[in-house]
């Protein structure tokens, strides 16, 4: 998600259909500033909350939100907002998915 934003802003050609990054071409965030999804070092809590809320609002309407979140959890991406989840939320989701995979008779989400 956010790394592709930079490519979109520099005029890079869209990825070919079928590539593992092709979902990013349909992402709602593709024309948004990367700083909305990745805060600056030393960002204060009130500013971070406002920024993350705005990023999550964009993610909420994104048609490729599930693909983005799956990518971020599988990678794992440690920083930023991906698939509508912040850093701690993704870490929690990653742990939950790992637990679900380990249970007999349960299919991973």
Automatic annotation (TrEMBL):
PTM (free text): The Fe-S cluster can be nitrosylated by nitric oxide (NO). Upon Fe-S cluster removal intramolecular disulfide bonds are formed.
Main location: cytoplasm
GO molecular function: 4 iron, 4 sulfur cluster binding; dinitrosyl-iron complex binding; DNA binding; metal ion binding; protein-disulfide reductase [NAD(P)H] activity
UniProt keyword Translocase, yes or no: no
Cofactor(s) in the UniProt record: [4Fe-4S] cluster
Residues bound to [4Fe-4S] cluster: 29, 59, 62, 68
Keywords: 4Fe-4S, Cytoplasm, Disulfide bond, DNA-binding, Iron, Iron-sulfur, Metal-binding, Transcription, Transcription regulation
Family: Belongs to the WhiB family.
Functional summary from the UniProt entry: Acts as a transcriptional regulator. Probably redox-responsive. The apo- but not holo-form probably binds DNA.
Name under which the protein is recorded: Transcriptional regulator WhiB
């Amino acid at each position: 998600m956010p790394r592709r934003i930079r490519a979109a802003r520099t005029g890079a050609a869209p990825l070919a259909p079928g590539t593992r990054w092709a979902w990013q071409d349909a992402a709602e965030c593709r024309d948004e500033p990367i700083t909305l999804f990745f805060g600056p070092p030393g960002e204060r809590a009130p500013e971070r909350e406002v920024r993350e809320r705005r990023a999550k609002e964009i993610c909420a309407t994104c048609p490729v939100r599930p693909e983005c979140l799956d990518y971020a959890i599988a990678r794992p991406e440690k920083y930023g907002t991906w698939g509508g989840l912040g850093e701690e939320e993704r870490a929690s989701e990653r742990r939950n998915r790992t637990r679900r995979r380990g249970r007999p008779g349960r299919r991973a989400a």
